[in-house]
């Protein structure tokens, strides 16, 4: 399962890229490459155990499509 806050965007906050990059809907910023393994629950990592941003915002987490990596209801 990926983090429900994980999105893929090619632009946000006056930054623009040719390809979509991992974007954190909780922190409202692009995810640092080192953190992307946590966002995607790769290896032994888990967003709900190892990401302090997720833990701070867990009660705001989108529900309903947590397996897609896209935030529910966020079409901004
Ligand atoms: S794991 Fe953390 S950094 Fe990654 S999308 Fe979720 S809240 Fe954001």
TrEMBL record:
Residues 57-76 are annotated as: Disordered. It comes from the Archaea. This is Uncharacterized protein. It comes from Natrialba magadii (strain ATCC 43099 / DSM 3394 / CCM 3739 / CIP 104546 / IAM 13178 / JCM 8861 / NBRC 102185 / NCIMB 2190 / MS3) (Natronobacterium magadii). The lineage of its organism: Archaea, Methanobacteriati, Methanobacteriota, Stenosarchaea group, Halobacteria.
